[in-house]
Amino acid sequence: MPNQVEPIKDHLGRALKDLRISVIDKCNFRCTYCMPKEIFGEDHVFLSESELLSFEEIVRLAKTFAKLGVEKIRITGGEPLMRRNLDELIEQLTAIPGIKDIALTTNAVFLPKTATKLKEAGLKRVNISLDAIEDEVFKQINGKGVVARPVLKGIEAAQKAGLEVKINMVAKKGMNESQILPMARYFKGTNVILRYIEFMDVGNHNGWDFKNVITKKQIIDTIDKEMPIEPAEENYYGEVASRYRYKDGGGEIGVISSVSDSFCGTCTRIRLSADGKLYTCLFASSGFDIREKMRNELTDEQLEEEVTGLWGNRKDRYSEERSEQKNNNRKKIEMSYIGG
After folding, report:
1. Does residue 268 sit in helix, strand or coil?
2. E-assigned strands of the chain?
3. Over the stretch 177-215, which tens digit does the pLDDT of each residue have?
4. Of 68, 233, 266, 268, which sits with the fewest C-beta atoms within 10 Å of its C-beta?
């Protein structure tokens, strides 16, 4: 039997079910809404190897979270495939009792070399970031002049390896609204689920403004006019994407709408940064330094107590409290640091 108990709940009654682990803060892209090159330039200082949690430390934490109810793990970055020997970590995480699903968020550029090893290690699915299918638009977004083909090759490699694939497209006015329909056309009728993400106010450097948000309703209306769609039931409690299916049987799409349609009430996620800080909300201002405590010989029992207390006191509901009219100057963690 899995060594797992009933999930612990936070102050608002939300269960702890999902752990998102950032394994590195570096990325090979400089996307304008995440790591703009004006801020993350050649002289930017990233975390040193000693600052990063070791695989041993990550696995120890994951075992503790599994005991407290976590069933799903998502590996993120930065670009997580820039962390060496990532397949070794996934193999160890897969072996933890109670963990039912392990996924990876990536820009897919390195997947042709790694997809088979990741699948063999126990990875089940990849969420691939692709914000435009047309090269000129994509080159502007990723800040490195990379065309779409390397990402598409990564998608092909993932599918060949037997990994489930979902595509994440951040939709932002003035950046890629022209790509909403071309992306839908490209992936319709394939085994790949395309998910649109409203431009979120994560971090402090992406120039977020509500006027740049393309809402779920606008996205759905745009697609429905050309390719009729209808709502589909959620796959599980707390699913962040609203699902829609094509009426002609051409598959489905999803929309993640944390700006126009908050889902704080069903949020079951906790996030671990690459340097060992725990965040109970994507929009948090500060984290809980678990690395320091672990390196000061915290026992397994004490570690479990720390995590239980942290989640039990959680009251975060930022997206519900956000106001379109109010200028929110609160300092927030960067998307590239925590991995979304």
Report:
1. coil
2. 18-22, 72-76, 101-106, 125-129, 164-171, 193-198, 229-231, 241-246, 252-256, 269-272, 277-279, 288-289
3. 999 999 999 999 998 999 999 887 655 555 556 788 899
4. 233
